[in-house]
Design brief:
The complex is a heterodimer of chains A (528) and B (369).
Chain A (H helix, E strand, L loop, with lengths): L5 H8 L5 H29 L2 H19 L4 H28 L11 H9 L2 E2 L6 E9 L4 E6 L5 E4 L4 E3 L12 E2 L2 E3 L2 H12 L3 E2 L4 E4 L4 E7 L1 E4 L4 E4 L4 E6 L4 E3 L17 H8 L1 H37 L6 H8 L7 H12 L5 H8 L11 H29 L3 H9 L4 H29 L2 H8 L19 H10 L7 H26 L1 H8 L1
Chain B lengths: L2 H5 L9 H30 L18 E4 L4 E6 L6 E2 L5 E7 L2 E6 L4 E4 L8 E2 L4 E6 L4 H7 L6 H32 L5 H11 L8 H14 L8 H25 L3 H9 L4 H30 L2 H6 L8 H10 L6 H21 L1 H14 L1
Antiparallel strand pairs in B: 1-8, 2-4, 2-7, 3-6, 4-5, 6-8
Helix pairs in contact in B: 2-12, 3-12, 4-7, 4-9, 4-11, 5-7, 7-9, 8-9, 9-12, 11-12
Classes of the chains: A alpha+beta (528), B alpha+beta (369).
C-alpha cells in the first residue's frame, strides 16, 4: 500500500468513510460560490464592467475545474489561496495597467454602458404633454400618491405604480379626505413633503407622472435614447444628437456641448505622455522622483549606520545589562509606525512641541519643521532613523555573531589595527550577509507611504505644481495616492495608476537586480 | 581601545575603563533617544490638561479646583450633576440668572464636576464658591472612551475583529496550500511557487487605486464586500498575505518528517485526515506565531484601511487615530496620547515577548540571504 503513487492515493481517499460527506460539502461549497460568481458576472456584464466579469468568471471556472477533476487533486488544496491571490493581487496589478490607459477619474467614473443605463432612466416633461394640477396624498405606510386634476376638471389618481381615472368623484366636486387608503395632506404637510415627492415618479412605467412645479404635474417621457448605429444619444427634449467621443469620454453634440456624465474610455498612453509634455506634471514629478530616491537611500544609509554602530557596541560582553539594553533599544521597532510618526510630529510641533520648545529655550529660533521643505525632509529622515535602526541593529547583531572568530585571530597575528579589521574583514563579511536586506529596505522605503502621509501629508505644497496636489516631501506612492484620493481637486485615477505603473517597473527592476546580485533565484530554487 | 574585546568576545583584554565607559555612555544616550518619545507620550496620556502646550515630562498632580462666582446671581438649573465629566470648556455646568438674564456657567477645564454647593433657587454673591472641578490621571482615557464624535471603542473593536478574522483566514488558507506544496509532487508545482513569490514583490498597497475601484464596483451589487465594509477589507488583506505566508508555512511543513504521514497513510488515513489529525497539530505552535504576527500586521495597517473605509463608524483604530492627528492635534494631544498607547500595546507586548523568535527569524534570513 505504501508503494502506491500519489494519484492513486488521492483516488483511494474518495472511497474512505467520510468521503460522501466531504464530496457533498465540496459540491455545496462550489454551488454557493458559483451562484454568487454567476450573479456577479451577470450584473457586471450588464454594467459593461467587462474586466471584472471576465476575471471573476475565469477564477470561478478554474476553481471548479480544479475541484472537480481528480487528477488536479493537489491543486484543490491551493485553490482558495489561488482564487484570493488572483482576485486581490494579480487582477489589481493588471487592472492598474488598464486604468492607467484610460481617463478614469472624476467626470468619467462610469462605464459607457453604466452611463447609458443612467441616461435611460432620465425623463422630461414634453412641451405638448398633458399637464395636471396636483394634490398630495399619503397612506399609512408613508407612500405618497397624487390626486391629479386636468384642464377639464377631470380627476385622476396616481400612486407609485398605478394610474387610474377617478369615477367616484364628479368633476368639480371637492377632493375627498381619503381615497383608496390614502389621506390628503394639508397645505403645510404637503409643502414639507413636496421636496421628497418631487423625486418620485408616479403612475405606471408606461405613463410616468411627476411633479413639475408648485402646482403642475405632468406626463414624463424618456429623455435620452441611445442609437447604436450612430453610437450617439438623442436628446428628445432638444432633438440634439450627442455622439460618443472616445478621446474625451464624453457624449458631444456638434456645438461641442456635452452631456453631464462622461464615461471611461481608453486614451492610450496619454497619461504617460503627460509626464513629459505637461510642465505642471513633469516638473514636480521629477522632483518627487529625486526625493523618493534620496529619501530611500538616506533612510537605508542612516538606519544601517546607526544600527551597525549599536550592534558593534552590543558585541562587547563587558557591557552590563546587555539584554536590557537590547530590549530597550528595539522599543521603537515595536511601536506601530503611524503612532510613532504622530508622537514625533507632536514633539516637533513648531509652537508647542517639546523639541521646538527646548531649542527655543536655548535662545535659538526653532526650525520650521513642517513649513520649510528642507527641514520637513530632515524631520522625516530623523523619524525614519528612529523607526528603522532597531531592524538593522538586530540584523547586524546576528550577522556579526556568525563571522568566524578565527579570522580575527589570523588578522591579529598579522598585527592589524581595529580599523583595518573592521574595514577589511567585518564590513565585507557583514555586507555579504546584510546586502540583500539593504536592498529590500530600499524598496520598502521607496513605498513608505505611512511616514510621509502621517508626517505632513506630503507638505509643504509645491507651488509649481499648480492645481495638482504635489508636496515637497511627497514620494511617488503618496503622490499617486493624492492624485487618486486627494479630495479638493477631482480624482484622477488614470494618472495615479500611470504613476503606480512607473513604481511597479522601478521596484521590479530593483528586485530583479537584487536577485541577480545575490543569485537569489538559484537559492530559492534550491529550497523548492 | 577596547576594540579587541568588541570584535572577539572570547579573548577579552584587561578592561580599558575609558573605552568601556564611553561605549556605555553612547548606549545610554541611544536608549534616551529610543525611549524619550515613549516617555513623552505616556506623560501626555496621564496629563490631565489635554493640550500640548501645558505638558511637562512629569504630569502634574490632578488637582481639585474650586470654581468661584464672578457676579451675583440665582441658580436656575443644574445642567451637569455631581460626577459628570466635562469635555474641555464646552460643558455647561450651571444655568443661572444674573441681572434678570439667563446665563450658562461653563466648566473652566477638562475634569469632573464635584460638590455643587448650591441648590436650585439659591442665590450667590461674587466670590462665593459654586462647585469643584476634580481631575484624574486617567481623564484622557475617560474622554477617549466617551466621545461620541470619535467612537474609539468602536474603532478598537473593528480593528480587533478585522485582524482576528484576517489572521485566522490567512493561517487556514495558507496552511492548506503549504501542505500541498510540501507533500505533493505535481506538474507546475515549481512554476507556481515561483509565480507566487514573484507576485509578492508588488505589495497590494501599490494597487490601492485598482483595489478601491474594484471594491466600489463589487459593492454596487454585493454590499457586504464593498467599500466601507470589513468584509471587503478582510478579503484584500487575506489576498495580499497569501504569497509570503505560503512560503513561510511551506518551510515549516517541510521540517515535519514525511515518515509521519506515510505511516498514517499505511494505517488507512486519507490526505485530509493526515493533514488535519496529524500534521496540523504538529505545526500548530508555528501557526500560532504566524497568526499573531499576521494579527499585528493587520491591526497596524493604515493605508488600505484609510482608502477603503470612508465612514467614521467603519474605521479601524489606526484610521481613527489618524483622524486625531489631522485635526486639532495640539488641542486633543492628551486624548490622542491615550488612544495611541492603547493602540500600541498589542504590538509592543507581542514584539517584546517574541523578541528572540523575531531576532532568530531576522538573523536567519540575513545569514542565509
Amino acid at each position: 500500500m505504501a508503494t502506491l503513487l500519489q494519484g492513486s492515493k488521492a483516488k483511494r481517499s474518495e472511497f474512505s468513510t467520510r468521503s460522501v460527506l466531504r464530496l457533498a460539502a465540496t459540491y455545496l461549497g462550489l454551488a454557493v460560490l458559483d451562484a454568487m460568481a454567476l450573479y456577479l458576472v451577470y450584473v457586471f456584464a450588464l454594467d459593461g464592467v467587462w474586466e471584472l466579469a471576465i476575471t471573476i468568471g475565469v477564477i470561478t471556472l478554474l476553481v471548479n475545474v480544479i475541484n472537480l477533476r481528480g487528477d488536479l487533486y493537489p491543486l484543490r488544496w491551493i485553490s482558495p489561496a489561488l482564487a484570493l491571490m488572483g482576485l486581490m493581487v494579480v487582477f489589481p496589478i493588471i487592472y492598474t495597467v488598464y486604468v492607467s490607459l484610460t481617463n478614469y477619474g472624476d467626470g468619467n467614473l462610469l462605464t459607457k454602458q453604466q452611463v447609458l443605463n443612467l441616461l435611460a432612466g432620465e425623463t422630461y416633461l414634453p412641451e405638448g404633454g398633458k399637464v395636471y394640477r396636483w394634490n398630495l396624498y399619503q397612506n399609512a405606510a408613508g407612500d405618497y400618491a397624487l390626486w391629479l386634476t386636468d384642464a377639464d376638471d377631470g380627476y385622476f389618481f396616481a400612486t407609485l405604480g398605478e394610474f387610474e381615472a377617478v369615477r367616484s368623484v364628479a368633476a368639480g366636486d371637492d377632493l375627498p379626505e381619503e381615497y383608496g387608503g390614502y389621506r390628503q395632506l394639508d397645505r403645510g404637510e404637503a409643502l414639507r413633503a413636496s421636496r421628497e415627492a418631487q423625486e418620485l415618479s408616479f403612475g405606471t412605467a408606461a405613463l410616468q407622472i411627476g411633479i413639475a412645479g408648485r402646482k403642475e404635474a405632468g406626463e414624463f417621457a424618456q429623455r435620452y435614447v441611445y442609437r447604436a448605429d450612430e453610437d450617439a444619444v438623442l436628446d428628445n427634449k432638444t432633438s440634439a444628437l450627442f455622439y460618443a467621443n472616445y478621446e474625451t469620454g464624453q457624449f458631444e453634440n456638434d456645438d461641442g456641448d456635452t452631456l453631464r456624465t462622461g464615461f471611461i474610455s481608453g486614451t492610450g498612453f496619454k497619461n504617460y505622455v503627460r509626464f513629459v509634455t505637461s510642465p505642471a506634471i513633469s516638473g514636480p514629478l521629477a522632483r518627487i522622483f529625486a526625493w523618493t530616491i534620496g529619501f530611500s537611500l538616506a533612510s537605508v544609509v542612516s538606519t544601517f549606520t546607526v544600527g551597525l554602530l549599536f550592534a558593534l557596541l552590543m558585541q562587547n560582553e563587558r557591557i552590563p545589562y546587555r539584554k536590557a539594553f537590547r530590549t530597550l533599544l528595539i522599543v521603537p521597532y515595536a511601536i506601530p509606525a503611524l503612532i510613532s510618526v504622530a508622537i514625533w510630529k507632536g514633539m516637533l510641533n513648531s509652537n508647542l512641541g517639546v523639541i521646538s520648545n527646548a531649542i527655543a529655550s536655548l535662545g535659538i529660533q526653532p526650525p520650521p519643521f513642517f513649513i520649510d521643505p528642507g527641514w520637513s525632509k530632515f524631520g522625516i529622515l530623523l523619524i525614519n532613523l528612529w523607526l528603522g535602526y532597531p531592524y538593522f541593529m538586530l540584523v547586524c547583531s546576528g550577522a556579526l555573531a556568525s563571522i568566524p572568530s578565527d579570522m580575527y585571530e589570523a588578522a591579529e597575528v598579522d598585527g592589524a589595527t581595529w580599523w583595518e579589521k573592521f574595514h577589511a574583514l567585518t564590513l565585507p563579511m557583514l555586507l555579504v550577509a546584510v546586502g540583500p536586506l539593504l536592498i529590500a529596505s530600499f524598496t520598502y522605503n521607496f513605498n513608505n507611504f505611512v511616514i510621509i502621509e502621517a508626517y505632513n501629508e506630503g507638505g509643504p505644497p509645491m507651488v509649481e505644481s499648480g492645481t495638482l496636489p504635489a508636496g515637497h516631501t511627497d514620494i511617488l506612492i503618496s503622490y499617486a495616492y493624492r492624485l487618486a484620493f486627494g479630495g479638493g481637486r477631482g480624482a484622477d485615477f488614470g494618472l495615479a495608476s500611470a504613476i503606480t505603473i512607473i513604481i511597479f517597473v522601478l521596484v521590479a527592476g530593483v528586485t530583479l537586480a537584487q536577485f541577480r546580485l545575490t543569485k537569489g533565484w538559484e537559492e530559492t530554487s534550491e529550497n523548492v | 581601545m577596547s576594540s579587541e574585546a568588541k570584535l572577539k568576545p572570547g579573548k577579552a583584554r584587561p578592561a580599558l575603563t575609558l573605552g568601556l565607559s564611553m561605549q556605555i555612555a553612547i548606549l545610554v544616550i541611544a536608549v534616551i533617544f529610543a525611549l524619550f518619545p515613549v516617555v513623552w507620550i505616556l506623560s501626555a496620556a496621564l496629563n490631565p490638561s489635554q493640550s500640548m502646550n501645558s505638558q511637562s515630562v512629569v504630569p502634574p498632580l490632578p488637582e481639585t479646583r474650586i470654581v468661584v462666582a464672578e457676579e451675583a446671581g440665582v441658580l436656575l438649573e443644574i445642567a451637569a450633576p455631581n460626577g459628570s465629566r466635562v469635555e474641555r470648556s464646552a460643558g455647561t455646568i450651571l444655568l443661572v440668572e444674573v441681572d434678570g438674564e439667563r446665563k450658562e456657567l461653563r466648566a473652566p477645564k477638562n475634569g469632573y464636576v464635584q460638590n455643587i454647593r448650591l441648590r436650585v433657587g439659591d442665590s450667590f454673591e461674587p466670590g462665593e464658591a459654586l462647585y469643584d472641578i476634580g481631575s484624574s490621571y486617567l481623564i484622557n482615557f475617560d474622554t477617549l472612551f466617551n466621545t461620541e464624535r470619535k467612537p474609539y471603542v468602536r474603532w478598537l473593536l473593528n480593528s480587533v475583529a478585522i485582524a482576528t478574522i484576517t489572521s485566522f483566514l490567512v493561517v487556514m488558507v495558507t496552511a492548506l496550500s503549504a501542505y500541498s506544496f510540501s507533500r505533493f509532487r505535481f506538474k507546475g508545482r515549481r512554476g507556481l511557487l515561483m509565480l507566487i513569490l514573484l507576485v509578492q514583490v508588488f505589495p497590494n498597497l501599490l494597487a490601492m487605486v485598482a483595489i478601491f475601484l474594484m471594491l466600489q464596483q463589487i459593492g454596487n451589487h454585493i454590499p457586504f464586500f464593498g467599500l466601507n465594509t470589513a468584509g471587503g477589507l478582510i478579503l484584500v488583506y487575506v489576498g495580499g498575505a497569501m504569497g509570503i505566508n505560503i512560503w513561510l508555512m511551506k518551510g515549516f511543513f517541510d521540517s515535519v518528517p514525511r515518515d509521519i504521514d506515510e505511516s498514517a497513510m499505511v494505517d488507512g488515513c486519507g490526505h485530509w485526515q493526515t493533514y488535519w489529525r496529524l500534521i496540523f497539530p504538529l505545526v500548530r505552535p508555528v501557526l500560532v506565531v504566524v497568526g499573531i504576527l499576521s494579527f499585528v500586521g493587520t491591526f497596524n495597517e493604515f493605508v488600505l484601511a484609510r482608502v477603503l473605509l470612508r465612514d467614521k463608524e467603519s474605521w479601524t483604530l489606526m484610521v481613527g487615530l489618524w483622524g486625531y492627528i489631522s485635526d486639532n492635534f495640539a488641542r486633543d494631544w492628551g486624548i490622542f496620547a491615550a488612544g495611541a498607547i492603547i493602540g500600541a500595546i498589542p504590538t509592543l507586548i507581542i514584539y517584546l515577548s517574541l523578541q528572540d523568535q523575531i531576532v532568530g527569524g531576522l538573523t536567519q534570513g540575513s545569514v542565509k540571504g
